[in-house]
Amino acid sequence: MENPDTALHIAQTVKTICDDLEIDYIFKASYRKANRSRLDSFTGIGDEEALKYIRQIGKELNVPTITDIHESHEAAMAAEFVDHLQIPAFLCRQTDLLLAAGRTGKGVNVKKGQFVSPEAMKFAVEKVQSTGNQNVWLCERGFSFGYHDLIVDATAITRLKKHGVPVVMDCTHSVQKPNTTHGVTGGDPEMIETIALSAISTGADGFFIETHPNPAEAQSDPHTMLQLDKLRGIMEKAMRVREALNNQ
Hints:
This protein is an alpha/beta fold. It has 8 helices and 13 strands.
């Protein structure tokens, strides 16, 4: 949430695309970016202010909302403003965080750690479900390859779906080039469409896509953001692939 005007513009544009293509849309924004590389990186406009804007956009557009949490004490607070909670990939093994998210009764999207196998993600699912909350899904975002690259395994979606929960493909973070020496995560946004089409063809139930009208000016992940005017074309192709598979 860098500012409410940009966030609302993005949400309105994406909702129009999703409505046209009959896709369920969940508006996602981070109320605070806690895992930045550098100390001087932008982290947010204030927790409560950002959460209020996220809630306001959800109500104005009549769409569900989701945001990240990073510590267990944030779960109940964030749950007052959004419909779903997201567990960052680096924190997918944090038991207290997963339990706190589950106890809110909200939907919980657990991003798979870059260091975790698809099979091992069953333990994250079990932690959330142990609270009585069955509304959990998993998000694939690639595997660490050395220090500066991620690899997307084409078998990951199929393997994650064996846990019996919906699986989402993070099409933008999976093109990251992390741990750069200048402290700003790099990436290859030209590969976003490739990742999306591969994921939908292997059974992904949804996409996580960070998009911005001008990625170069984005306060977070400028090198992996999808330019907003490129989203419709990718989604149209993905839906055609899905329709073809469903008609087999």
